[in-house]
Design brief:
By secondary structure, the protein is α/β, with parallel strands linked by helices. The chain is built from 13 helices and 15 strands. The protein is 38% helix and 19% strand. Helix 2 crosses helix 3, helix 5 crosses helix 7 and helix 9 packs across helix 10.
């Protein structure tokens, strides 16, 4: 078996594959990333233009040191960011294959057929989302000798906990009951969980910037965002604050009205001028935020860690509980930027939220780096106006 193969489905996954590769060869690929310094316009059409045209790719079975297979998502914002991240990966000497894994009828069978050979020959497989049904299916068919899981958000924390407890893999924001689709896929998930666990013939590594407790037999390697710091910045700082958006409304966790009200109060309390949107936030919600708050809504064309590092960025960055309250302090170390996290109050949650949602989000905020400020919100009037302290 030869070669290393990475499967990514999001821009953050690809960024963290680059960070992992940098730890293997820290001399290579610094200060050579060809990313424009102009800030994103926030226009979704930019993402569509970035998605236009073919992407050159070396054959996946050429067995270079590391080959990245992009299992392309369907939404334009994710695709646009992934196109740009793919070019950064090529600039670092990696081979990138763009796989239209969700490209209509027959895409799944075609993808499995095209990837079977490199999967069988891969000494190490790197994945960014162990909860992905696509990745789980690939792992049930082919078991690598070495497996590395890189961050794709706070789900890494839940994956490590579930693996350590021997539980079935369920995303933290999903309810515990199995629907028809989950029942059909339950055998795949069960087998994949076994393939994600270490055995006598397989090592498992979690490469993460998050505070996780290593499951038995699993190696946890720290992701300090060294490649990001070596390649970009330091950024120019603006005088105000920036807010970081979240997809908690879109995933059915947080009530939309509460969310909009908190964003408005945060903007006023901190003198914020920009709102960096999560790539999964809906256009309707972002329009409401822009109209009601006056914030400039920015749709980043790269993961926020890179956007912040290349600048300009506010002296204070306020975020809801998410991965960035762990990653931004690392990416912005030594720049003077202050990161703050706003804790989610129980009354913000929707009735459809998973019973685990409150505890998980509290854990994300509570385990943020010690230099991250923690903001709490409380109702100060019958109108439920929020104050932060």
């Amino acid at each position: 078996m030869t070669g290393q193969l990475a499967f990514v489905e999001s821009p953050v996954q690809l960024l963290n594959v680059l960070e992992w590769a940098h730890t293997q060869n820290p001399v290579a690929g610094t200060r050579s990333a060809g990313v424009p310094t102009a800030p994103s316009t926030g226009d979704p059409a930019d993402a569509a233009r970035a998605d236009a045209g073919p992407v050159d790719a070396a054959p996946v079975d050429a067995t270079p040191p590391l080959t990245v297979v992009v299992l392309s998502p369907t939404d334009p914002m994710s695709r646009g960011q992934l196109r740009r991240m793919a070019q950064l990966a090529r600039d670092q000497g990696l081979t990138v294959r763009w796989q239209e894994a969700r490209g209509g009828r027959g895409a799944l069978v075609r993808t499995l057929r095209e990837l079977s050979r490199p999967l069988r020959s891969a000494e190490r497989v790197i994945i960014g989302d162990p909860f992905s049904r696509y990745v789980q299916l690939l792992l049930t068919l082919f078991a690598p000798r070495h497996l590395t899981v890189v961050d794709d958000g706070t789900a890494t924390m839940e994956f490590a906990a579930q693996l350590g407890r021997g539980e079935r893999l369920v995303r933290w924001h999903r309810k515990g009951s199995l629907g028809p689709r989950e029942l059909v896929l339950a055998p795949v998930t069960s087998l994949a969980r076994r393939k994600l666990a270490p055995t006598r013939g397989r090592t498992v590594e979690i490469f993460t910037s998050l505070p996780v407790e290593a499951p038995p037999g699993v190696t946890v390697t720290e992701n300090a965002y060294a490649w990001t710091r070596d390649t970009f910045g330091p950024p120019k700082l603006t005088g105000g604050a920036d807010l970081v958006g979240t997809s908690l409304v879109e995933t059915g966790v947080v009530d939309a009205d509460h969310y909009a009200r908190v964003v408005s109060e945060l903007a006023r309390a901190h003198g914020a001028t920009r709102y960096f949107a999560h790539r999964r936030e809906s256009a309707e919600k972002l329009h409401r935020i822009a109209v009601e708050t006056g914030l400039q809504v920015v749709r980043p064309d790269l993961p926020l860690e890179l956007i912040a590092r290349r600048g300009p960025i506010g002296r204070t960055v306020v975020s809801f509980p998410s991965t960035v309250v762990h990653t931004l302090p690392l990416a912005l170390a030594g720049t003077g930027v202050k990161v703050a996290v706003i804790e989610i109050a129980p009354e913000w949650l929707r009735a459809t939220a998973s019973p685990r949602a409150q505890g998980f989000l509290s854990g994300v905020a509570g385990t943020a780096a010690h230099e991250v400020d923690r903001l709490t919100a409380r109702a100060s009037s019958p109108a439920d106006r929020l104050e932060f302290g």
